[in-house]
Write a structure and sequence with these properties.
Keywords: DNA-binding, Transcription, Transcription regulation
Organism: Streptomyces albus
Protein name: Helix-turn-helix domain-containing protein
Distance between the termini: 45 Å
CATH topology of the largest domain: Jelly Rolls
GO molecular function: DNA-binding transcription factor activity; sequence-specific DNA binding
Number of strands: 12
Oligomer: single chain
Low-confidence stretches: 1-5, 325-329
Helix content: 40-55%
CATH architecture of the largest domain: Sandwich
Number of domains: 2
InterPro entries: AraC-bd_2, AraC_XylS_family_regulators, Homeodomain-like_sf, HTH_AraC, Tscrpt_reg_AraC-type_HTH
CATH superfamily of the largest domain: Jelly Rolls
Strand content: 15-25%
Length: about 325
Amino acid sequence: MGTSGECVDIAVDEVDQWAEITALALVTTQIKARPGQPFAARLRTMRLGASQLSELSYGPLLSQRTPRLIRQSDPELFQVAVIASGRQRIEQAGNATVLRGGEMVLYDSSRPFRSQVENCPGGSMARGVLFQFPKAGLPFSPHEMDRLLAVPLNTRRGAGRLLAQFLATAAGEYAACTAFEAARLGTTAIDLVTTALGHHLGREDQVPADARRQALYRGITAFIEDHMGDPALSADGIAAAHHISVRSLHRLFQQHGTTVASWIRRQRLERCRRELADARLGSRPIHAIAAKWGFPRPADFTRSFRSTYGITPSDYRGMFLDGVTGTPR
């Protein structure tokens, strides 16, 4: 087991160990592995303020949370699980569904549930991320929430897609975050959960204004990232795509301490910087990298890069590629 700040990473090869670890880090369940088959599992937990994000991988198993276990201990949490790989049948509150990679589901720690993980192709383990947070963090009634337990939640568009992407990205970047930044990530995740569930319930009117703004901001930045290579990307086009005024768009970015143009420019430069430092791309001309990320004029790119990083693109690439490739810079 290794720890780094509020992060814990544990790997086990016994189902009893897995039951103990998940009881401490998640909720108490009864777990049974498939008889006669070796078992392996891994759990990485990350504290996000009052919430927690976990990465899990495990072999075939049956997990049940019974009424007796709930009476013994109930942290009163909601859990949002995003399945990365594997096939998983989930039952709770009279609902049942079979989830596959890329799909998302909601659990309630106060209700019995049953989850069965089947064999993955090639004997690989099932994988996913789990975000758990206090039930009091949502504005919806228990009756409304029961409708969403153990049913597939849309991850192909809208706030559901943003939530699934955000949780995966947060897990990957957690090691670089301060405790304050991690807590902010937790707040953002709850805002996205609230917005996504409000959409499924048809109760967008119950979603707090702050959560709606946060979800809109995340949706806009995701849109920009998808269109980063388009040199014609503009505030007018972004606002039109999201059915808001240009003034509202600028106000939204000002609330995050930046401007639309500055945010786009910085993201484009960061992508160029990463590719310039990648030895595998040493044969790609600098102007081609710049054009790929929305800088069609090499002189403009060089000027922006040097203004931001204090070094020219060719000199920056040279710091990483000298002695690795003889390709002209």
